[in-house]
Specification:
The chain has about 850 residues and is an alpha+beta fold. It has 16 helices and 46 strands. Helices cover about 25% and strands about 30% of the residues. About 0% of the residues have low confidence. Bound molecules: beta-D-glucopyranose (BGC).
Length: about 850
């Protein structure tokens, strides 16, 4: 590297213009409340606010802010009857600023704005933003739970349930809200129009402890006169098949609905229409709809239901009174994030396989469903099956879905064009096999709808190496495919569970790609809710596997790792404080298991799951002793809990956990480290974890990294790590003087490596290093997902080391970043950007003709080194 060309740009949107020469205009925008834009239905008594500063100046810092909030826009504008008026607050804080105004009642609407003083001048008041409180107390719910009166066979999937109710709206409406939740999944309609654009509501939580409700502004859907509310209800996670042992009714055998429509008239009068007496229920065309198995839809049954969710509907046949049910309302919580339709994809090709299946290829392994247009005779049945891959011969391959049918059956109504998409199921697929389609299936007749939690994309990464760009693409799609209300292991087979080990491994990468703060705020509450009284943490959350499926190291450590990493990514002390007791309980549990030895040698552990080469241990096995891993993670969790205690101002507890960490570390060294600095077990993962968790004496670290690098060399530049070692592998190498080896691994294209699947045409991250072998045969059908994000954890290293954009743990939440690309001649350029709470960071470097040039963009009120 001969020359350096450095260029720091702090000019949002203004390229290289010299800041000092321009008139410095300061603005404030992107107002957020609890990470969201104008959220509806909050249950935080003191929501937190944030804003972004815009300025053409360099190094601009906020010196003070002023926030005001009011019950109405008019009050806000006039500055009267304010709920909150901070006055000028001398502070550089612009994210997660806690509301401290008048107490907020249920349903309270709040309009707010902010202005800032900065080193480059003052802003005017921002545009107003708003938020609205939800139903904050159980007594706010006056509606009653309802359910169907007919008997159902709990052993079999049941047809969807249809609920309807007419009501009258007597006067002009000022505003109306629908508060709604269910046991099972619901879809709501008001006067025939769908309410909201969320799917899989009310979402999946530990239902007995926390049940989410949603809030919709339905003002525009109402009319004066008679109105009608209709809701469909289906099995979902509540009572549909869940887990690979064919469990049903995990949360109970009966579905139920709770909805409350609150209308405020222009006159000021209020009216509530709730589920309860007077509601009707029946069945319709959704004959069956289940998460794993897909949907059976008979459109011929639509005729009897035409207009069923409108007031004009007069059919009484097939409808009967719904029953009210005395079910709890004291565990209802607001929803931070929902699943939506995020993208649609057109077919890449439609072809016939050697076995004669008509197959649509969408060119991308994805999670969601298809939208089909069809015209034909009544009673004609179209069948759509879903697959991630084709086999060696190019035939449709579904064996790896195990027990999941992942199939749609649509029976035509006949008589005109019909459009179908399913309702309460999702599929993980790239290919769809279609049979029974009347006439030719042309590409304009079918498209794929991608569904996932509606996270804002925050990260971007590209570099001068096409295969790495495809790897980044696959990582991103692994996240899209598996962030469907909970972080699932996979979206296709009869599993799709919130595996805790996978989630902790992938979290730092996930938090770069997308804003996952609302997503994990919700899920971490479930981690805490499902934690066992002993402090042990389940393998999956929500826990559907039972109390004995808990306590594996590397999985249960999700309770400490994710809250801490969340805090680093978002500077969210409230979240950390909320999870801190759960962190303590987990560490307390392990401490008890380990006893005076500080070595954790009991219980069941998944270990370094899917390391190389589990199936063939004689081939230079990468196996790492599970007790070694357990103790290493015990140390790591103790250290993270110490850090959390320190961040929360609990100095005594911090010291206590620090001592615990030191004791574990000492015991670990005595047990597993030879005098000459060799680890037993001598696997890659052993060195990786020991280095990553700071378990080796300072003076032996470089040597340990060298041994690790030597092992990589010995294997022809291949890794042998599994779920637990892989996430830290490149980082410990590059942190300890073995950068070239990190690149050797990253750029390796033969199995096992990150780029092997890329070379094999993968469009997502595979569960196994060799999901499809070089001869195009597949790994064991018992466990072979082509959409599993865990190995995608390398994404974090690509952002933070290859591109060189990393948060600073000393100033979390991207308040300050470290720009430190670690280039290798084989990848001569990279660009990464991150949309932080302060605004957009970008690092863009190139290394060409002996010149290294670096361009950095830093948003106002943040800094970079
Ligand atoms: C899941 C994994 C999970 C593992 C735990 C598998 O069935 O798909 O991702 O972490 O089990 O052993």
């Amino acid at each position: 590297m001969k020359n350096y060309l450095l260029c720091f740009v702090c000019l949002l949107g203004f390229g290289l213009a010299p800041g000092g020469l321009l008139a410095q205009k300061v603005g404030v925008q992107a107002l957020r409340c609890e990470y969201r834009e104008n959220p509806l239905g909050l249950d935080q008594a003191r929501p937190r606010l944030g804003w972004q500063i815009t300025s053409v100046g360099r190094g601009v810092r906020q010196t003070a802010y002023q926030v005001r909030a009011a019950r109405s826009l008019a009050d806000l504008k006039a500055g009267r009857n304010l709920l909150w008026e901070t006055g000028r607050v001398v502070s550089d804080r612009s994210v997660l600023v806690e509301y401290a105004g008048a107490p907020l009642a249920a349903r309270q609407q709040v309009y707010w704005q902010v202005r800032v003083w900065t080193t480059a001048g003052n802003s005017a008041w921002s545009q107003p933003a708003r938020w609205e409180m939800g139903l904050t107390a159980p007594t706010d719910w006056t509606a009653q739970w309802v359910r169907v009166p007919w008997p159902e066979d709990p052993k079999l999937p049941q047809p969807a349930q249809y609920f309807r109710h007419n009501f009258s709206v007597a006067e002009p409406v000022k505003a109306a809200r629908l508060y709604i939740t269910s046991h099972g999944l619901y879809e709501a309609f008001l006067n025939g129009r769908r309410v909201g654009d969320d799917y899989f509501t009310p979402g999946w939580t530990s239902y007995q402890k926390r049940l989410q409700y949603q809030v919709y502004d339905v003002t525009a859907l109402l009319k004066t006169g008679t109105n009608a509310l209709g809701v469909t209800l289906a099995e979902g996670w509540f009572r549909g098949e869940l887990g690979w042992q064919n469990n049903r009714n995990v949360y109970g055998p009966q579905l139920a609905l709770l909805g409350q429509l609150e209308i405020e008239y222009a006159s000021g009068r209020k009216q509530t229409v709730g589920t309860g007496d007077g509601w009707q229920c029946g069945q319709g065309p959704i004959r069956r709809s289940e998460i794993y198995d897909g949907e059976v839809y008979d459109a011929r049954q639509e005729a009897r239901l035409d207009g069923w969710a409108t007031a004009a509907y007069a059919t009484t046949e097939g409808w009967q009174p719904a029953q009210t049910a005395d079910l709890p309302k004291n565990h209802l919580v607001a929803t931070p994030l929902t699943v939506r339709k995020m993208l649609t994809l057109k077919p890449k090709q439609i072809f016939t396989t050697p076995q004669g299946d008509l197959v649509v290829d969408f060119g991308q392994n994805l999670t969601g469903w298809v939208r089909l247009q069809v015209q034909g005779p009544a009673g004609q049945a179209v069948r759509l099956r879903h697959a991630e891959v084709l086999d060696k011969q190019g035939n449709f391959y579904t064996a790896n879905l195990r027990g999941a049918k992942a199939e749609l059956q649509y029976t035509l109504r006949g008589g005109g064009p019909e459009t179908y998409e399913p309702h309460f199921t999702f599929m993980g697929f790239r290919y769809v096999a279609v049979s029974g389609y009347p006439g030719p299936l042309t590409p304009d007749r079918i498209e794929a709808v991608v569904l996932h939690s509606d996270m804002e994309q925050t990260g971007e990464f590209t570099c001068a190496h096409p295969l790495l760009n495809q790897l980044q693409h696959n990582i991103e799609w692994g996240q899209r495919g598996n962030f469907l209300d909970v972080p699932t292991d996979c979206p296709q087979r009869d599993e799709r569970l919130g595996w805790t080990g996978d989630a902790q491994a992938f979290f730092p990468t996930a938090a770069f790609n997308f804003n996952v703060a609302p997503f994990f705020t919700k899920w971490l509450a479930d981690v805490a809710a499902d934690q066992l009284p002993s402090g042990s943490v389940p393998f999956v959350v929500p826990n559907v596997l039972g109390p004995n499926s808990a306590g594996s190291s590397g999985w249960a450590d999700v309770a400490t790792i994710v809250p801490w990493e969340f805090y680093l990514a978002y500077d969210d002390l409230r979240l950390l404080a909320a999870q801190y007791p759960s962190m303590q309980k987990w560490v307390g549990y392990v401490r008890q298991q380990a006893g005076a030895s500080y070595l954790w040698r009991s219980g069941f552990h998944f270990g370094d799951w899917l390391y190389y080469n589990e199936a063939n241990p004689s081939a230079e096995p990468g196996y790492t002793d599970r007790e070694f891993i357990a103790t290493a993670f015990f140390a790591h969790s103790a250290r993270l809990t110490a850090r959390a205690a320190r961040a929360l101002g609990k100095a005594d507890e911090a010291a206590e956990y620090e001592t615990l960490y030191q004791n574990i570390r000492a015991a670990f060294q005595k047990e597993y480290l030879t005098g000459a600095g060799r680890l037993s077990p001598h696997s890659q993962t052993a060195y990786v974890l020991a280095l990553a968790f700071g378990l080796l004496p300072q003076e032996q670290q470089a040597q340990a990294a060298a041994r690790l690098a030597a092992d990589v060399k010995k294997r022809g530049n291949h890794l042998s790590t599994g779920f637990l070692g892989t996430p830290y592998l490149a980082q410990v190498l590059s942190d300890h003087g073995q950068l070239t080896t990190a690149y050797d691994l990253l750029l390796q294209t033969t199995y096992p490596s990150w780029l092997y699947p890329v070379k094999m045409g993968a469009t997502t991250i595979w569960e196994r290093w060799d999901g499809q072998k070089t001869d195009s045969t597949f790994q064991d059908v018992g466990m072979n997902s082509f959409n599993h994000y865990a190995y995608g954890a390398i994404g974090h290293w690509m952002y933070t080391n290859l591109a060189g954009l990393a948060l600073d743990p000393e100033q979390p939440g991207y308040r300050h970043v470290r720009v430190a690309p670690r280039p290798d001649a084989r990848v001569p350029g990279a660009r990464a950007s991150y949309q932080s709470a302060y605004g957009r960071f970008e690092v863009d470097w190139a290394w060409a003709n002996g010149t290294f040039s670096l361009k950095v963009t830093v948003p106002p009120n943040a800094t970079a080194t």
